[in-house]
Design a protein that fits this description.
Oligomer: single chain
Strand content: 5-15%
Number of domains: 1
CATH topology: Arc Repressor Mutant, subunit A
Distance between the termini: 16 Å
Shape: globular
Largest sheet: 2 strands, antiparallel
Number of strands: 2
Radius of gyration: 13 Å
Order of helices and strands: EEHHHH
CATH architecture: Orthogonal Bundle
CATH class: Mainly Alpha
Number of helices: 4
Helix content: 40-55%
Strand order of the largest sheet: 1-2
Length: 90
């Protein structure tokens, strides 16, 4: 199994400096990847939960884990990382 490490510059947040996100797709669970792609598609947590057949609270837990693993602070930065992940993986 080949591990891919991607780095992406994320825009500065309102209260913070510009950050660099390094993410390793091998560290994400399959459900976290599905949630990340839902965020990339612009879906709400409720919509992602419905699509995956899980509770909205579970989606929120996955979002928290994603933000921690991707070292980002908000949903927009998760979407940017998802876009980059899709570019690297696809």
């Amino acid at each position: 199994m080949q591990r891919v490490l991607a780095t992406v510059d994320v825009p500065a947040t309102a209260g913070g400096a510009k950050g660099v996100v390094a993410h390793d797709p091998a560290r994400l669970t399959p459900t976290q990847v599905k949630v990340m792609h839902g965020v990339r598609s612009g879906l709400l947590n409720k919509q992602i939960a419905h699509d995956l057949g899980i509770a909205e609270a579970t989606v929120k837990a996955h979002m928290t884990a994603l933000m921690r693993k991707l070292n980002v602070r908000n949903r927009t930065q998760v979407a940017i990382a998802a876009h980059t992940f899709g570019s690297v993986a696809g």
